[in-house]
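Could you help me review a protein record that somebody else here produced? Here is the record exactly as it was handed to me:
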Amino acid sequence: MPDNPTPGPTLRRYALYQIPGLLLAIGVVVAVTRWTALPGWGAVALVVVWVLKDAALYPWLRSAYEPDSRRIVERMIGLAGVAVESLAPRGYVRVRGELWQAEPVDEHMTIEAGHPVTVQGVRMDTLLVRPAPVVLSDLGH
């Protein structure tokens, strides 16, 4: 599988997931048109605005619809995080704002709380991390 999947399958998947919302929007517009004096062009305009909203959101939501055979935890490999508590031998790290159970790649190593880490691998649902180098700008110097 290529690293950059073609937009076709992703766009198709996104469009298919938008169909129930579009059908609901059309139903609401039809009901509003029957109960009020909304002209036909107004009803069509509301449906067009709904479709344009979905089209405008696609660039931000595209990654959620891309096929990726790896488990979520395996997608963490290579990401940076911070040890929330000492990893001696196991503790928690924060990666992308989420807490994950982690342990050092080297089982004889201790990583102190607050130290930056890099995810190197996964064992079951536990991240295997390595201390990341501390940059002076990270320390506020």
Observations:
- Residues 21 and 27 are 10 Å apart (CA to CA).
- Helices lie at 7-35, 40-65.
- The chain has two domains: 7-65, 73-139.
